Every structure is written in structure tokens, then in C-alpha cells.
Amino acid sequence: MTEPPIEDNPSDDVLEELLGAFSVDSTPDGTDDIAPGRPDEYDFDDPSIDRLLGITAEQPTVAAAPAPALAERSRPEQLKAERLKPVKPGKIKPVKPAKSDKVKSSRGQDAAERPTIVIGGEDAPDAVFLDVEREEKFLERRTEEGNKERSTIVITDFDEVAPLDATAVRSSMGGGGGGGSPDQRIRARRISVRRAEGRRRLRWVLIGLAVIAVPVATLAVLASQIFDVTEVTVQGATYTDPTLLATVINDLTGDPVLLVDTQAIEQKLQADPWVERVKVETDFPHGVNIDIRERKPVAAFQGGDGRFRIIDYEGRVLDVIDGIPIDYLLITGDHPDTARGQFVGAPYSAAAELVLSLPSEVSAVTESVGLNAATGALSLQLNGGTTVQLGDASHMDKKLARLLTHVRAGVVGVCEVDVSTSEVGIVPC
Prior knowledge:
The structure is a single chain. β4 (299-302) and β5 (308-311) form a beta hairpin. This protein has a nine-stranded mixed beta sheet with strand order 6-5-4-7-8-9-10-11-12. It has four domains: 12-25 and 34-148, no CATH class; 156-220; 226-294, Ubiquitin-like (UB roll), CATH 3.10.20.310; 332-428, no CATH class. By secondary structure, it is an alpha/beta fold. It has helices spanning 12-22, 47-53, 67-82, 98-109, 132-144, 166-169, 182-222, 242-252, 262-270, 346-357, 360-364, 396-409; strands spanning 231-235, 275-283, 287-294, 299-302, 308-311, 317-321, 329-332, 366-371, 378-382, 387-391, 414-418, 425-428. The radius of gyration is 56 Å and the shape is rod-shaped.
């Protein structure tokens, strides 16, 4: 009783055909009868051997295509099977050309359509399109020319790497030509990857240069003569040195508005004693605004040189003039020759604060302020020759309140009034 055939075992016909194709005769002395110079190599990984043995390999995923496209897939495999190592004549049994005829007939029905083979799977590469018709013409032309060596087809991703030299990646399979080794193929692949990385780096460098060039070009345009300063506006300058203002305006005119150093201009103007605060702002595209806040003059005194000094509430000398200033209350006494822009001292600051603190009724009848710079004692000279003794600068609000009471009551016929203490002393004329 014979056992049923196992599906994995090939049939007797297939084994006989393989034996005739891949076996060699032995000589009487026991050595193999191999033709000299013939390489003892076979491509056992060729899928045609698996097909002859009846082993069904896992097929790749094929995208939906017309029926003729499925027939196209068998053509390259058949051509590959025909490229096996030649064996001795008479050992190979003829293979039925039915499948080849079917391929040609199917191509004749729809020769315009080209099959699309898609290798599926999550980890599979991108789709590869094979031009089978061009490959067949290429093989037929090589057969007519008598050259039956295997051809090398290089499939690459043209978006990532540069085209490779086919001779650098050609491998010796079976009896085909080509002398490329695995090391050569790996080296060619590394070179292509390095070129791709170099192109990517070049793109990033170009992007970086563009990012830098755009703002630089913008600043170059804005700093050009198109946006020069042509108008300077000054506000609040009454006593500020006109020569200094003219110099600043001349320096600003013609400069690019975006390159104006506002802080430097502010420091330059604040050197004038009259300037308490200054703000410089640019008005794009052609203007500059200068806003000046000047110090307030309070009183004046005459120095030892005969010239008069005008001071503010801090005792700072704002200006030195030759004539008597009639717009400010005069401080009498012996005074130093303080230079312009300098502080004259605390007693003069107290005298200036006294002038600012005078009630309007008292200020209207006051002619001058007396100051003893050595002791700091203050006094007032009223209209009609009345002298008011105030003492030092302490508790000045209470002293002025007592003085206001006597001014309202009338000081006619009074030569001196002492309000430095709570007990007011009156000296009649």
C-alpha cells in the first residue's frame, strides 16, 4: 500500500529534471567531470528553483492591477531562471514554453498598460515601478548581439540620494559578469548617503544665510540716506544756551533717523545749567523731537566781582549776568563769585526756599531778602523801610504766619519786626 503524496515533496518529474540540470558525471577515477575554467557556483537562492521544487514562497502584496499585469510578473522570473549556470549538453530536459507564450500573448492584448508592483507591509520601502516592456526589449537586443550576461538594475530613491554607478554595485551571481563585491556596494551606498547629508546641510546653511540677510538688508535700507533727519523740533527751551541747541541740531541733520543716539544728545543738553530734564525722540522717517524742561529761577545775588548770579530753589547758579535782574527777588549781603552751573551752598538754598514760601500778601510788599552767609540768618526788607527778622531757616512756616498777621494789621511807622520767636518784637520808628 503506497502512502499518499506529501504536498511539500516535489514530483518525480521535477526531481529528474533537477538531477539532470545540476548534477555532473563522475570519471572512472572518482573525480567530478567539471569543465576546466567553469566556476563551481550556483545561485540556489534563485526563485525559479523554488518554483520548480513546488515550494510556495510568501508572495509580496500586489496592488490591484488588470489581469495582464499579473502575467507580466512571471516574465522576469523566467528570464532569471534561464540565466542559471550552463551545464553539459544533453543533461537539461526541455522546458515547456507555455508560460512564456502566455506572457507574450497577454502582452499583445494590452501592451499599452504597464503593471505596477507595490511591495506592501508596514516596514516595506516605497512603491517601485518596473518597466517590463523596456526590460524585454533590452534583453532581446543583448541576445541578438550575442551578449547573454546578466544586467544589473539599480533601484534607488532619487529624492534622497544621487544616482549610483551601476558598475560599483554589480555583483557576481551564477555565471553572470561584473566584479562588484559587497564591500564595494556598501561603500557606494555610504558615499551616496554622505552626498545626501551634504546637500541637506547646504540647504540649512542657505536658509540660515537668508534669515540673516533679510534683516541686514532691511537695516541697510533704513539706515540709508532715504531716511535722513531733515526736521528737528525743540520745545521748552527759553533760557537754554542757543549756541548749544544750534550745534545739536546741525549734528542731527542729515543723519539716518534710526541711527540717532538719543541718550548721547540728552546728556549733551543736560550739561546746560538751565536744563533740568530733556527727552529726545525720533519721529520716523525724517524727524527728531527734543522736549526740554528748564529749571525755575527764584532769586539773584551779586558776587564780589559785581556780576549777578541767578539761582534756583536748590541754590544752583543758573546764569551769571552783568546787569541787575529785575524779574527775580534780590538777596543782599556779601556773596561769593560762584561760577555758572555750580551750587552756592545751603544758606542760599534756604533763602531761595523762603522766597518760594512767602505768602502772596507778604511777597507783594517785599523788596529784598537779607542773608548772613556766615550765620545763616534770614531777614526781609519791606516797602516803607520796615525790616523783618526771621532768624535761621527752622520753623519758617510759623514765622511767616506771625508776619502775615502783622502785615494785615499794618506796619506803617514800624522800623523792625522780630518774628523769630513766638514773642513778636516790634520796634517803632
